[in-house]
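Input (structure):
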C-alpha cells in the first residue's frame, strides 16, 4: 500500500503543472483546477492496513507549492543512499515517506482541516515511526520499512530548522538550506558511528532541536545517514542477548506474579471493608509493581530490535 500503482488519469493530470512553470500568472487557477479534478477521482481515503491512514494516491501533489521543500528532503535521502547499500524497494519507500507528511497537510488544507506542525515534532511519534520501520524491515517488507523511516526523517528534518524570532525567519531559513551543499564526509562519519541499536537511536533523537540553517543541514545529514544505516540493516543478534532476554523474562514473571497477588489482596481488602479507594487502586498497584522491573523493559526493547515480537 505504501507504493500504490499510479492511476493513469491522475498521472495525466500532473501534466497540467507544466504550463504553470512557463506561465506563472496562471499558477493559482491551474492549481485549483488540478486539485478539484483530483478530488473527484476516488474517495478511498482510509484503507492502509486498517491504520486509518489516508490513501496517498488520493492526495493532490501540488508540485509548485512543495517542490523546493520536497527537493531538500529528498536530496538528503538520495545522497545518503548513494553511499549505502539500500534495496530499491526501501529506497522508493524513503523517497515517498519523506514527503508524505507534507502531502497529508496539503490534503488537510484542501479539505478545510487543521494543519499539523512539523517544526516541533513529538519524539514519541518519531520513535514509533522508527520502530514500525524496523519491524517492517525484519519482516522483509522493505518498501513499508523505507516509507515509515522516511516519515520519521521528515519530522526530524523539519524539527531542526530554526523558526527564528516569533517565526519571522522560518521561510528564509528554509530558503538558505536550498543552496547548501551536502558534505560526504559527514555521511561517512555518520555511517562509521552508526549502531543498529534502539538506544543509539534514542541518543540521536536527542539532537533534534531548532538550529540555524548551516548547522541544521549538517545535523540532518548526519542523522539521516545514521538512521538509515541503523534501521535498514541486517545484523546478527549480539552474542549473549538471547540468554540475557530469557533470564530477564523469567525474572520479570516474578514481578508480574507479585503484582497480581498484591493487586488481588488490595482488591479483596477493599471489597471486605467497602473501600472504593482500595478497589480503584488495586489494578494500579499491580501495574506499578510490574513496571518497577526496568531492566527487563530495557532488554526487551533491544531484543525486539532484532526479533519480531507481537
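Output (sequence):
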Amino acid at each position: 500500500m505504501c507504493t500504490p500503482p499510479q492511476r493513469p488519469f491522475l498521472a495525466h493530470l500532473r501534466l497540467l503543472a507544466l504550463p504553470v512553470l512557463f506561465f506563472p500568472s496562471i499558477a493559482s487557477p491551474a492549481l485549483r483546477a488540478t486539485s478539484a479534478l483530483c478530488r473527484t477521482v476516488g474517495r478511498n481515503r482510509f484503507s492502509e492496513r486498517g491504520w486509518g491512514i489516508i490513501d496517498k494516491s488520493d492526495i493532490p501533489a501540488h508540485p509548485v507549492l512543495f517542490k523546493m521543500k520536497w527537493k531538500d528532503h529528498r536530496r538528503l535521502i538520495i545522497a545518503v543512499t548513494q553511499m549505502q547499500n539500500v534495496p530499491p524497494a526501501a529506497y522508493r519507500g524513503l523517497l515517498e515517506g519523506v514527503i508524505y507528511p507534507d502531502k497529508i497537510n496539503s490534503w488537510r488544507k484542501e479539505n478545510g482541516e487543521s494543519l499539523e506542525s512539523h517544526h516541533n515534532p513529538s519524539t514519541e511519534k518519531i520513535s514509533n515511526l522508527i520502530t514500525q520501520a524496523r519491524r517492517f524491515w525484519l519482516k522483509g517488507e522493505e518498501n513499508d520499512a523505507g516509507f515509515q523511516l522516511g516519515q520519521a526523517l521528515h519530522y526530524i528534518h523539519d524539527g531542526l530548522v530554526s523558526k527564528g524570532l516569533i517565526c519571522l525567519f522560518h521561510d528564509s531559513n528554509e530558503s538558505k538550506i536550498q543552496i547548501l551543499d551536502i558534505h560526504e564526509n559527514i555521511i561517512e562519519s555518520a555511517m562509521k558511528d552508526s549502531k543498529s541499536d534502539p538506544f543509539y537511536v534514542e541518543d540521536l533523537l536527542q539532537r533534534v532541536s531548532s538550529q540555524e540553517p548551516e548547522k541544521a543541514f549538517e545535523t540532518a545529514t548526519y542523522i539521516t545517514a545514521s538512521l538509515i544505516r541503523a534501521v535498514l540493516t541486517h545484523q546478527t543478534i549480539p552474542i549473549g542477548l538471547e540468554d540475557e532476554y530469557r533470564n530477564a523474562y523469567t525474572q520479570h514473571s516474578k514481578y508480574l506474579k507479585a503484582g497480581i497477588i498484591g493487586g488481588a489482596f488490595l482488591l479483596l481488602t477493599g471489597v471486605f471493608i467497602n473501600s472504593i479507594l482500595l478497589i480503584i487502586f488495586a489494578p494500579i498497584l499491580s501495574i506499578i509493581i510490574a513496571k518497577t522491573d526496568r531492566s527487563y523493559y530495557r532488554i526487551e526493547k533491544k531484543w525486539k530490535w532484532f526479533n519480531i515480537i507481537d
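Notes: The CA atoms of residues 190 and 226 lie 5 Å apart. The longest helix spans residues 241-272.
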